[in-house]
């Protein structure tokens, strides 16, 4: 039997320790633990890596603490536009959605795109038509309303600026969520979900739903979920870059992940982090910011929940 493992993240960035109350930190860690354990329990029972990552990400989408699903940030127009992707490493099957509104769990819609359509990526009105065709419940805007997110938006809504969740040196809330897993059969998968940037305009899409940029899985190499400054992660094709270094340069999971986050993405001024797993259950979680909400658990008995370096 293969070693199996689960890792999740809730965003990377400027997490200033002095601004985090012990009460809030406990809430974040509890949410991370719950999501990680829900995914890990599926692996422990012999379930698939794909089911594990979807379940873990859904758990993170359901809490207002993170910028995905229920906790998604406000756009320039005061709406919520969400993105998500999911991919499995055995057959390189993938699904993604972008600019969807009113969908409680965008990661589930991404999986439906993978399994119930002939496509990989659906966006905007088309993605919403697809969801309605599958009888998805469309939540009202008040489901996604959060006071902290609203104040974050109010501070910049009349300007041309936007902000990445993780670039705010305030007691704000953080980022994009993701999960990677390796199951008992040695299959791996990755899922990522986000509400994007506060005050974003013009249908802006980040790296999270882009296969190869913010999310990728291939049994030959690794499964990766990214978080950070999306424009740079798209330009660096970060998730695939980690896989590429493993496949073509023979680097280990850890060396490849570190090369991308601590060198290659920094060379184009990108910041953030990623979580990755290989088909042997090894985990890497590098980030070049002050912190990254993260947690992991392995069948070897290793487990951890962390925020700072």
Descriptive overview:
- The two termini are 33 Å apart.
- About 3% of the residues have low confidence.
- This protein is globular.
- Helix content is 32%, strand content 23%.
- A hairpin with a 5-residue loop joins strand 9 and strand 10.
- The protein has one domain: Glutamine Phosphoribosylpyrophosphate, subunit 1, domain 1 (4-Layer Sandwich), CATH 3.60.20.
- It is α+β, with helices and mostly antiparallel strands.
- Strands 4-3-2-6-5-1-11-12 form an eight-stranded mixed sheet. Strands 7-8-9-10 form a four-stranded antiparallel sheet.
Q: Layout of helices and strands, plus pairs?
A:
Elements: E1 5-13, H1 22-44, H2 49-61, E2 82-88, E3 94-100, H3 106-116, E4 121-123, H4 124-133, H5 141-144, H6 147-154, E5 177-182, E6 188-194, E7 215-217, E8 223-228, H7 230-235, H8 238-249, H9 253-264, E9 272-277, E10 283-284, E11 291-298, E12 303-308
Helix pairs in contact: 1-2, 2-3, 8-9
Task: Give a quick rundown of the structure.
With 309 residues, this protein is α+β, with helices and mostly antiparallel strands. It has helices spanning 22-44, 49-61, 106-116, 124-133, 141-144, 147-154, 230-235, 238-249, 253-264, and strands at residues 5-13, 82-88, 94-100, 121-123, 177-182, 188-194, 215-217, 223-228, 272-277, 283-284, 291-298, 303-308.
